[in-house]
Structures are given as structure tokens and as C-alpha cells.
Design goal:
Structural class: alpha/beta
Distance between the termini: 58 Å
Shape: extended
Largest sheet: 5 strands, parallel
Order of helices and strands: HEHEHEHEEHEHHEHEEHHH
Radius of gyration: 26 Å
CATH class of the largest domain: Alpha Beta
CATH superfamily of the largest domain: Nitrogenase molybdenum iron protein domain
Number of domains: 3
Strand order of the largest sheet: 7-6-5-8-9
Helix content: 40-55%
């Protein structure tokens, strides 16, 4: 969040991060904050941090925009304060949709499905492929790789509750399915991903080819990794510099320009029944005409 905010020219940036039981903060988080020059840091997290930032406390001044992911409590808190303060989006739980074909490596596909399933038992991991044999190979790989993963219980429950395999007739149909789902993360693990990119209309972040797995976006590449979830990629975009910018419309009429348009404006205001609006224009017209 901090980097696009800084690029946008935000002068005041406050960071909140929950402390450990002994009151200490994660040293890696503090190093990252120091590298970015962040000095206003509060030891708090969760819904209570959202409310404090939105409405202020004796020690926390209110802010104009709250940005950053969190659990369901954070998301619901952001929904509650929206209107008193701006927010980036309502995000979570995490999700991934992978489009694959017969030549795709099932080990890669399985690994990437689980990379999102380990987040949360509510996470969604979906494979869309035009090759049923690949789907079967992915199932085998899931069972093989699960044994070595520390969060396998979460992964298993996530896949059982919200995982899916969808078999299509071809890659074009696979892309149509992806657009209907509008996933947070969309991986195109196909030989020629750029040839089908133009078919994708709805996705938070698109990962091109077998060597661009989702964790690359989590940790290393891309402008930001706060992404629309739950199908909201149909109308939301990822957090970018624009998230931290706003615009004002500026209008200017010369005296002559207003006189030339006065009758039309008066007529529109009168039709709407707003006579004081019409009067604001009329008094200027009458005064200009003597």
C-alpha cells in the first residue's frame, strides 16, 4: 500500500500492524516500514484498527482512506466505515482460477492451486481445462504434494469445500468461464498465454505462462497485490496509484458565455421545478442586460 500511495504523492501515511502477545512488532515488518520511510506506526490490527483509523481516538487521528487486506472482520469493518472514510475495496477470501491445457505440467497446476487454498478454509481454487486427462493428473499431484505441506489440513478443507475442476471444450470456452468467475488471481498455464490474453475481461491479476506463478505477485512483482475478490473483478480494479488519487471538476464561464447559455439553463432548471436555480442565472442575465 505504501509505495503506490507515495508515488501518488500522499504526504501522510499511517501504518497499523498487530503486536505479538509480548507487545513487540514483527521486526521484518518494521524493517520494511523503515525502508519506505514510514514513521507513524500503531500497534493494532483487526476491526478495531479500522474503526480507530476511520473515526479517530485520543491517540490515533482519523484518516481519509483505509487500504489493506484482512480477515472477514476487517472486511466487514471497512464496509461499515465506508462513507465516513474511503476504502480501497472489500476483499477476501482469496481465490485462484487456473486455465490449463493438455501440455500443462500437472505438478505446477497442483502446486498453484494449493498456494491459495492454504490461505483459508474459505479460499477458492478452481481448475478450468479442456483436457480431462490433465485434470486426473493434477488430482494425483495434489495428493503427492500435500504430504510435505505444513497447512495441509486447511488446504484439504478448502479444496473439499470450495475447490472445483471444470472441463471445457476448448481454451476459448475456458476463458469464458474465467470471465464469469472473475477471479482474484488468474493463471494462464498454457503454451501461448499471450494469444488468449485478449479473451480475458474480468480478473484481478493475470499470471502469464508456467513460470509466473501467483506467489511471484504476492512477494516480488507487480504494482500491488491487493486485488478484487468474490467476482468483483467485474467492476473493481487492483489497488494502484489511482487508488490514492482523486479529482475535482473545474468550471469557468465568461460573462458572455453565461449569457449565451442562460436561457437553456433557466429552461432546464424550470422544468425540474428548481426555481432558485433558475433565479441564480436569471438575476445575472437581467443585470447584464440592464
Amino acid at each position: 500500500n505504501a509505495i503506490p500511495a507515495q508515488v501518488a504523492g500522499v504526504n501522510e501515511i499511517a501504518m497499523v500492524t498487530p503486536p505479538a502477545q509480548d507487545g513487540s512488532l514483527n521486526p521484518y515488518t518494521l524493517v520494511a516500514a523503515a525502508e519506505l520511510g514510514l514513521e507513524e506506526i500503531y500497534k493494532m490490527g483487526g476491526a478495531q484498527a479500522v474503526f480507530a483509523l476511520a473515526w479517530g481516538t485520543d491517540t490515533v487521528p482519523p484518516v481519509d482512506l483505509i487500504s489493506g487486506p484482512g480477515n472477514i472482520y476487517v472486511t466487514l469493518a471497512k464496509k461499515m466505515v465506508y462513507g465516513d472514510v474511503n476504502i480501497d475495496m472489500l476483499a477476501g477470501p482469496s481465490e485462484i482460477l487456473i486455465i490449463a491445457e493438455g501440455s500443462s505440467d500437472p505438478a505446477y497446476v497442483a502446486a498453484d492451486l494449493m498456494s491459495q487454498a492454504e490461505h483459508d478454509v474459505l479460499a477458492r481454487s478452481i481448475l478450468v481445462t479442456d483436457n480431462e486427462n490433465l485434470a486426473q493428473q493434477v488430482e494425483v499431484e495434489l495428493q503427492r504434494q500435500l504430504e510435505s505441506l505444513s497447512r495441509r489440513d486447511i488446504i484439504i478443507e478448502s479444496l473439499e469445500r470450495y475447490g472445483a475442476v471444470i472441463i471445457t471444450d476448448n481454451l476459448v470456452e475456458s476463458c469464458r468461464v474465467a470471465n464469469r468467475v472473475a477471479p482474484e488471481h488468474l493463471e494462464l498455464i498454457v503454451d501461448k498465454p499471450f494469444e488468449i490474453l485478449h479473451l480475458i475481461e474480468n480478473a484481478g491479476s493475470i499470471f502469464m505462462g508456467a513460470h509466473t506463478p501467483e506467489p511471484v505477485g504476492d512477494y516480488f512483482a507487480g504494482p500491488n497485490h491487493i486485488l478484487p475478490t468474490g467476482g468483483t473483478a467485474r467492476f473493481y480494479s487492483p489497488v494502484t496509484v489511482d487508488t490514492f488519487r482523486k479529482a475535482s471538476s473545474v468550471l469557468y464561464f465568461s460573462k458572455q458565455g453565461l449569457l449565451e447559455s442562460a436561457d437553456e439553463i433557466i429552461k432546464l432548471a424550470t422544468v425540474e421545478g428548481l426555481t432558485a436555480h433558475a433565479n441564480s442565472i436569471r438575476v445575472r442575465k437581467e443585470k447584464a442586460n440592464g
